[in-house]
Amino acid sequence: MRINRGLSGVWAYLRGAPGTHVWLAVLFATTVALHSMPPEFEENFLRHRSTNLHELSRDPVRVLVASAMWIESGHWLPYAFLYTVFHAPAERWLGTARWLAVCALAHVPASLASEALLLAAIRTGRAPLTAVDTLDIGVSYALAGVIAVLGYRIAVPWRYGYLVAVLAVFTLPLAAGPTVTDVGHLLAALFGLACFPLVRGRGKAWNPKETPAGLRG
Fold first, then answer.
1. pTM of the model
2. Where are the transmembrane segments (predicted)?
3. Confidence (pLDDT) at 72
4. Dihedral sign (CA 140, 143, 149, 151)
């Protein structure tokens, strides 16, 4: 009986954020596949699924989708933790369609904008021509956007502290030799903040002074 209740609880938890857990399952499968590849083949394989200038010029839709299905580091567990902490609550709060819209509105524009900045740097001589094949793959842009949009789930004045911390996390790396990915992360967070219209009507903001149960949405 307890086992059945436990399984029912797990199923209810997974069903509350189906998109998050399906995505995690896909990432687990691709990570396992990545670990089975010879090291000399792995980088080239990922490069063809990267949102770099070369691949975007050839097949932008394919790489924008494919780049969200692989983890460059090959470490799945940290992302499982981050998805549980950020993606799952966001999906339960916004609903799967709106959550997915935030992910797309962070991932796609941030990828395109950061690569456009890189193209400008190449044309002005501030970046080498070889940068067109820069490896820029992974799910972190969508994650950055969702982390930012969750600020609207928190009541004022606590929201301001959260958003300052989020922007600091994504801005500080720019001070120490920014990469395309660093720029992309900050842009994705800003695009996430721009998704405010999607959070309207999604319930009362959570006040940390009240019960944490409010986060369950």
1. 0.88
2. 12-34, 63-86, 98-122, 134-153, 160-177
3. 82
4. negative
